[in-house]
Amino acid sequence: MRRKGRKAALIAAVVSAVMIAGPAATATADDPGTSAAPSVAEIKLDNAARAAAAPTMYFGAKPLSDVTTAATAAANAASCAITPKYATALVIAMTWPEVSPSGEAPSPMTLSRYDTQSSLGDPQDRADGLWFHPGIGMWQLDSAGLGTTFTAMEAMDTETAANRMAPFIVNKYCGRINAGATAPSARASAWADWVACRSGACDTIFWRIYNNGVTPVQGVGRYGGGEARECRFNGVTQACLYVDPAQAEGADWWARPGGGRSPVAAPFYVFKQQVNGKTTEVRYWLRADSGAGTDVVATRAFGTNARGGLVWRTGSGFCDLTTGTGSC
Fold this sequence. Notes:
Elements: H1 2-19, H2 38-53, E1 58-60, H3 61-76, H4 84-92, H5 95-99, E2 135-136, E3 141-142, H6 152-156, H7 158-178, H8 183-190, H9 201-212, E4 215-217, E5 227-233, E6 236-243, E7 268-275, E8 278-285, H10 287-290, E9 295-301, H11 306-309, E10 310-315, E11 319-320, E12 325-326
Parallel strand pairs: 1-4
Antiparallel strand pairs: 2-3, 5-6, 5-11, 6-7, 7-8, 8-9, 9-10, 11-12
Signal peptide: 1-29
Protein name: Transglycosylase-like protein with SLT domain
Keywords: Signal
């Protein structure tokens, strides 16, 4: 049966991930009963040390522009003395430990790879790639915490994510400064939501990029390879994002089958809709993309942890209006 095959593959992947120090894939907002297990925490901290020792820190030129703009606005509105340069370094220091320990440009598309709960997969096991990654993007915004009111599209979008994360991080820093904390303590508090920052590596990276800057690279867009589209579903037309991990821009270790413990999602669409009066994230797989016999849709109400709050069902009536794909 397919389910037994996927279960066996997940067990093998868990063993492999514990044996090798693969790149970190989820933020501290993850479910503490799973992703905070010692073996995963050790992997994340090892990745943080690797990132701190990387010879060069690269960052996508477009994401860097988005972060710099957001960090500058946050610094100008801050309740403590902080420069835009300082705020920018503060806001991105954790991205390499979390998603790119090699120092490559962090990919805005990054999908978490260390959650293996069966609840994240299609309960009917119609295809291996029907998998709902809970942690998304350079900041690994997770449905259990910081990403609970983000769709994957919003968490990948460096403009949207930076505009929400920059004031969050800067305000946490200023809150500690205004309470009398030292600057190192305030920085640690600002990064407390990311496991990879708990060893001090993020502070090392902070000073490296504050003093020396980062090396901007072209070819990393605001969605990290995701394609903005217009879609229609349930009679409603809205902006959507087509996410194909094979097209990831920036560090793409996570897009490879051996890059983590969980499966890698097949290409999917993501968008936001109102469902029964609740703001809901919708991820939709066309059967042509997933290999399943039908379209499949998974939904998560905002404020819900994907590990226990997904609704899976057979999909129908979806149209990618940009390309004319689906039921158009």
